[in-house]
Design a protein that fits this description.
The chain has 635 residues and is an alpha+beta fold. Helix content is 54%, strand content 19%. The longest helix is centred in the N-terminal third of the chain and has 58 residues.
Length: 635
């Protein structure tokens, strides 16, 4: 409450209190007075009724005797005596036929009438001499009751006024004056702030009472407000420095008008995206309602402006048609109640240069309802975008180069097979001719054997290269399938030792090519068979879910792999043993790696597994796939 209001109504609180005291006292006095007068009226009425009863017991015999003697003069004297009694207004004498014989007094407006029969014993008979009718009035009772009512009300009103004056006198010093001081203190606190308003002197109040406690609490509140105000000012100053010095372009904007205008369209909008497409003019009008509160130095620099005023004055030049989707995303966020978004957009500097920016839009905490403070950051990603485009072009050229290399490899491998078959065939023919000549040379036989072995090994390498290139060139259709089908296909193509044991756990469903996955497991299991020990061969295939996919392991109890060669296992034509120890040309695991790449997966060697070897296959999760496929089995 302001001090001006207190001066216009200096005793508002006390005035209401006094009015209520007067009203309550008046009502109480009226009720009490009415009850007392009611009791008194009935007491006076009982007295009047007793007086009428006394007429029957005291005067009626005399009247009966005078009627019998027909002493009219005596009767009138008796009637006049009755009229002198308080409350008796009229006395009437009627004969036996009801005719009026004597009437004295006036008929009252409010009367209580009593009729007494006049009878006398004569010669043993009861003689009917007529009736005596006496009328008593209550008008005097009413008049006296009204007079007493006004008197009592006047006395009560005087008492109430005296009581009100006493209450006012008692509360003026202890309530009204302290309330004025507190109201003035609160007004100064609200107008000048907690740092400029001095504390209220507690000496003006009685120590320990409610007013003193209230002022002490207000002083403590002023101290806390002053401390919070100082901290807020310091934080505001610090944030303003960070805002201005930030290397990222920052905008402080007011979206309250945009939100209010968009809310007016809400009854007409079912789909915000469809509405924005159908009403481009309305969208541009909403964009004009965005008010820029402030920008930092990085914003001025990024847009090649001389100062903040120039940037805000030429603000429409900054935005391009490519900037509209970013504003539409902001409208969509306002529509759905989101408070943050990130998107790419394009802006123009004041000298016409287009810049790609990463825009982050965030409603400031505490302003989610009003939307009058939104922080927008613009990170210049023009160079990054150019680098990404260059990288994409380089990747495209690299993919084309790899595709061309794969085509060349496939053609080369296919074309080399025919000459290599010819070398092997003619070397065998020369060997038969030498033997047929009858003079075989041991040195020539050895040379032919080396030539045939080298040619055969080269033929296997070319065939492996051909298979590798065919996998790279093959256009396959991926479909959802149980991985166990590919494992079973691979096992049917293999010649397993009689004493071997294959343990297959629960395998998932994946998106893949059944033929290529069967080739994958064929190469892995064939390696396990090739590099087994003298012990009984045991191969275990198991799977477990991982975040975003599946981890499938193929383990064996063979000779194992030296962890030092774990990074070289999947190179093309990489062999860890001499050609005389184990067969093969080192193409199998390279094929496995290529197949896993075609399935967006990964293959790796587990260096911590011992004894034996374990390969780890990682497959991406298949959408709508069941968690596990067929139950496990042991072969």
């Amino acid at each position: 409450m302001s001090s001006a209001f207190i001066m216009r109504r200096p005793h508002g609180v006390i005035g209401r209190l006094l009015r209520r005291v007067v009203l309550a006292g008046g009502i109480a006095a009226l009720i009490l007075t009415s009850a007392l007068l009611y009791l008194e009226y009935h007491r006076d009425l009982d007295v009047l009724m007793d007086r009428l009863a006394q007429v029957e017991s005291g005067t009626l015999p005399s009247i009966t005797e005078n009627v019998w003697l027909e002493d009219r003069e005596r009767l009138e004297l008796v009637f006049k005596g009755l009229l002198q009694l308080p409350g008796i207004a009229q006395v009437e004498l009627l004969d036996g036929q009801g005719r009026m014989l004597v009437r004295l007094g006036q008929e009252p407006a409010h009367a209580i009438v009593r009729t007494f029969p006049l009878k006398r014993l004569y010669n043993g008979q009861i003689m009917d001499l007529g009736q005596l009718r006496v009328s008593a009035t209550t008008a005097r009772l009413h008049q006296r009751m009204v007079q007493r009512l006004w008197g009592i009300l006047a006395v009560n009103l005087a008492l109430i006024m005296v009581l009100s004056a006493v209450i006012y006198a008692l509360t003026h010093q202890s309530v009204i004056r302290p309330l004025r001081l507190i109201a003035h203190y609160a007004e100064e606190l609200g107008r000048q702030g907690p740092t400029e308003t001095p504390e209220q002197d507690l000496g003006h109040f009685h120590s320990g009472d409610e007013m003193w406690e209230l002022v002490r609490t207000l002083n403590l509140m002023r101290q806390e407000l002053a401390r919070g105000h100082q901290e807020l000012a310091a934080n505001e100053h610090r944030l303003r420095i960070l805002f201005s010095a930030s290397p990222v372009s920052l905008w402080e904007e007011d979206f309250s008008a945009v939100a209010a205008a968009l809310e007016k369209h809400r009854p007409d909008i079912d789909d915000i995206d469809a509405w924005m497409r159908a009403n481009p003019t309305e969208v541009l009008a909403l964009a004009d309602l965005v008010r820029v509160i402030d920008v930092n130095d990085a914003t001025i620099s990024m847009h090649h402006a001389r100062n903040r005023e120039e940037l805000l004055h030429r603000l429409p030049l900054i935005f391009t048609p490519d900037s509209l989707p970013a504003f539409q995303a902001q409208l969509r966020a306002l529509w759905t109640g989101e408070t943050a978004l990130t998107t790419d957009t394009v802006v123009r500097t004041l000298d016409g240069e287009l810049r790609h920016v990463l825009l982050r839009w965030k409603v400031a905490t505490g302003h989610e309802q009003t939307l009058n403070r939104v922080i927008v950051s613009q990170e210049d990603i023009t160079e990054r975008k150019a680098w990404a485009n260059q990288l994409e072009d380089a990747l495209a050229r690299l993919r084309e180069s790899n595709a061309e290399l794969e085509r060349v490899t496939f053609v080369t491998a296919h074309d080399l097979l025919e000459p290599m078959r010819a070398v092997i065939s003619f070397s065998q023919l020369i060997e038969r001719h030498v033997r047929a000549s009858g003079t075989p040379s041991a040195e020539l036989s050895d040379d032919l054997s080396y030539l045939q072995a080298a040619a055969l090994r080269m033929k296997l390498q070319i065939e492996g290269m051909n298979r590798y290139a065919s996998i790279c060139q093959e256009q396959v259709v991926m479909h959802l399938m149980p991985l166990s089908l590919a494992v079973n296909d691979a096992l049917h193509k293999l010649s397993l030792p009689d004493d071997s044991e294959i343990e297959i756990g629960h395998l998932p469903e994946i998106i893949g090519s059944r033929r290529q996955l069967a080739e994958l497991f064929f190469q892995i299991i064939e390696n396990s068979i090739k590099f087994r020990t003298v012990e009984k061969l045991h191969i275990c295939i198991a799977a477990q879910p991982t975040p975003g996919g599946w981890r499938v392991t193929v383990s064996d109890n063979g000779i194992g792999i030296d962890p030092a060669f774990s990074q070289l296992l999947f190179d093309l034509f990489r062999r860890l043993h001499g050609p005389g120890q184990y067969s093969g040309v080192g193409i199998g695991l390279a094929l496995c790696r290529k197949i896993m790449e075609r399935h967006d997966g990964h293959i790796a060697f587990d260096p911590g597994y011992y004894p034996g070897a374990r390969l780890v296959l990682t497959f991406p999760a298949a959408p709508l796939a069941t968690p596990l496929a067929s139950p496990g089995a042991t072969l």
